[in-house]
Design brief:
2 helices, flat
Length: 81
């Protein structure tokens, strides 16, 4: 057997990675005791906060964040003939 224990090690690593993925959302540690609606409200509030922070950051950067193209992002798609 030329592979030695490589297959066994990969199998063990995969089992370790898959350990918590078979749990239902309600059984996960961060969701214990919360109903579906409570989780949705909590997650929506987090996303709104995250979006507000992103908008504030974008406004403080002058709106130029993430676009390094000299043409303003138009690229080759906006070229006319």
């Amino acid at each position: 057997m030329t592979r030695g224990n490589q297959r066994d090690l990969a199998r063990e690593k995969n089992m370790k990675n898959q350990k918590g993925k078979n749990q239902a959302s309600s059984e996960m540690e961060g969701n214990k005791g919360l109903s579906l609606q409570e989780r949705q409200l909590r997650d929506a509030a987090k996303m709104r906060e995250k979006q507000q922070l992103a908008q504030q950051k974008k406004a403080s950067d002058g709106g130029a964040g993430g676009n390094n193209n000299a043409s303003g992002g138009a690229g080759a798609a906006a070229s006319t003939r």
